[in-house]
Hints:
By secondary structure, the chain is α+β, with helices and mostly antiparallel strands. It has four domains: 7-201, Beta-Lactamase (2-Layer Sandwich), CATH 3.30.450; 209-328, Beta-Lactamase, CATH 3.30.450.40; 342-405; 413-563, Histidine kinase-like ATPase, C-terminal domain (Heat Shock Protein 90), CATH 3.30.565.10. It contains twelve helices and 20 strands. It has helices at 7-26, 31-45, 92-101, 178-221, 228-237, 304-372, 379-405, 418-427, 430-435, 455-471, 503-506, 526-536, and strands spanning 50-57, 60-67, 73-80, 105-107, 118-120, 127-132, 137-142, 150-157, 163-170, 249-255, 258-261, 270-278, 281-290, 413-416, 438-444, 451-454, 477-485, 489-496, 540-546, 550-558. The chain has a six-stranded antiparallel beta sheet. Strand 2 (60-67) and strand 3 (73-80) form a beta hairpin. Helix 4 packs parallel to helix 6, helix 6 packs antiparallel against helix 7 and helix 8 packs across helix 10. It is rod-shaped. The protein starts with 6 loop residues before the first helix and ends in a 7-residue tail after the last strand.
Amino acid sequence: MKTNRDSLALLEEFRTYAHQILALANRGLPRFDFLREVAKIFLDNSTCDAVELRTEGHGRWFICEGVRHPEISFKIDVRSLNAEIHGDTVSDFDVFSNLAAKLQIELNDSEITDKGSFWVSDTSQKITISQRTESTDKSFDVDLGDLYKSLAFIPFTIDDENSGLIVLKCMESHSFNDYDIEFYEGIAAILGLAVADRRTQVALRERVKELTCLYGIARLIEDPNRPLDEIMQGIVELIPPGWMYPEITFGRITLNNSSYCTQLFQEGPQRLAAPVIVNGQLCGKVEVFYAEKKRELDEGPFLKEERHLIDAIAREVSHILEHKQANKEKDKLQEQLRHADRLATIGQLAAGVAHELNEPLGNILGFAQLAQKSQDTSLQLDDDLSKIVDATLQAREIIKKLIVFARQTPSQLAKVNLNEIFAKGLYFFEARCNKAGIELVKEFEDGLPEIKADQAQLNQVLVNLVVNAIQAMPQGGKLTVRTYVSEDSLNLIVEDTGIGMSEEVRRQIFVPFFTTKDIDEGTGLGLPVVHGIVTSHLGLIKVDSEVGKGTQFIIQFPLSNRNKG
C-alpha cells in the first residue's frame, strides 16, 4: 500500500485522519455511531476492503465492522471478554483479535512491532501463534478465514484498564508493509485518545443530566407544604431528559397502590428499574422504559451513568417518603401530647365539678323525694317533682361518669372471669334488643383464664359499648359480643351492623364530650370512660368502622394481668 514516498504527503494524510477522528470525538456521539463514523473515515481514506474496530469497556468488546463491497455497510456487535469461560462459541478470529488487543500474542514467521502491531500477508497459509501470559504459555494454529487474504492488527490504549484494536482487511494478499503499520500505529494512538475523550465527554454529559435531575427534585421538595402526589408527579416528569433517548423514554414511579407516570406513558420492550426502600421495607420502584428497542450498551440499552441516575432517583424518593413519614409520626406524637394535656385538664375540671355538684344535687334529690311524700300536693306538683327527681338522677349518673373519667375512685382489683361478667351484663339488654329488632349474638369462648380486674369497671365497658351499638341500629340489625383468648391477651369484640362512622368521627370518639347524638341521648363521655378503663387495665382498644356497614370495637386485656394484684 504505502511506500517510502514524500513525507509531506504522509503528514497531510495523517493530519486528515487525525482531524476527522478528533472532530468526531468532540461531537459526543453515542458509542456505535462514533465507531461507525471512524470506520467510514478509514474506508474513505484507504484502499482497504474492510476495517474492524474493537473497543473494550465494562467487560465486553464493542465491535463495528465497515465493509466496502458490494456497497459501504456497517455491522455492529457486542461480545464478552470472557466468552470462552462462559461457554460461548468463539471463532479463531475473535481469539486472535482479543490476544492481539491485549498484547498477549507471538506470531511465528512474522515480526511484531514495539507497539504490538503486526500483519498477516496470506491467511491461506498455516498460521501458528503463541500465547504468552503470566499463567499461560501455549502455541496453536488458527484459521482466520479466506475472504480477506491480508490482515493488519494495530492495538491501541484507551486508558489504564481498557484497550482497543484496529483490524485492516484486504482481499489481496501481501497488501501491507512496514510503512503501513507505522502509519496506522500513529492513527491508532490518535484513535485511543479520541475514544477516551469521547467517553469522558459522555460521562460529563450524563453527570450534568444527573445533577440537573437531582436539582429539579431538590426544587420540588423545598416547599414543605407541597403534596406528595405533586412531588412524585414532578419527579417522574424529570426522568426522560436524563436519558440518552428522551423522545422515546417513559418513566413510572410506583408506591404501594399509587402510580405516577410521564405523559402518554407506555411500557416499552426495554426497561431499567430501581427499588424504593423506606425504613428497610420495599414500598415501590422507579422504572424507565424505551418505547422502541435500542442497541446493547452497558446494561441492556442503558449506560452505566443511567443506572447511577435511576438509583439516585430511587434514593431521593425513599428519603422523601421517610421524611414525610417522620413528619407524620411527629405530628401524631404532638397531637397525642396535646390530647393527653387536654385530658389531664378536663379530668381535673371534671373531678372538681363533680365533687362541687354532688352535695347540692343530693339536697335537691332529697327534698324533692321528701316533697313527693307529702299528702298536700296537687297532681301537677307531683308531676313536676317526678321530673325534678328524674333530672337529678340523670345528673348524678353524669357525675358518676365524670368521677370515673377523672379516675377519682380507686379500682377494686380481683380475679374475674370475663364470660361471667359479660353474660350477666348482657342479660339486662336482651329485652331491649328484642324490642328494637336487634339480634343479640353471644360467642363466648369456653375456658377463659381469669385476670385481675375491676368487675364494676369491666361491666361499665360492656354497658357503654352495647348502648352505643343499640343506638347505632335504629332500624334493627345484629349485635355480636364475642370473647376469646389469644397468645398474650384476653379479647372482647363488640360488633354491630349499624350506621357506622366516618374517618373524621372515628378519630374523635375518645375525646371527652364529643358526641354525634342528640342532647338527650348522650353526654360524650361513654367512650372516653371505656378508653380510660381499658388503659388503666393496661389494655388496648381498636376501632374499625365503615359508614353504612357497622362498627367493631376490639378490646385486648393482657394475660400478664393474671398475676397482678
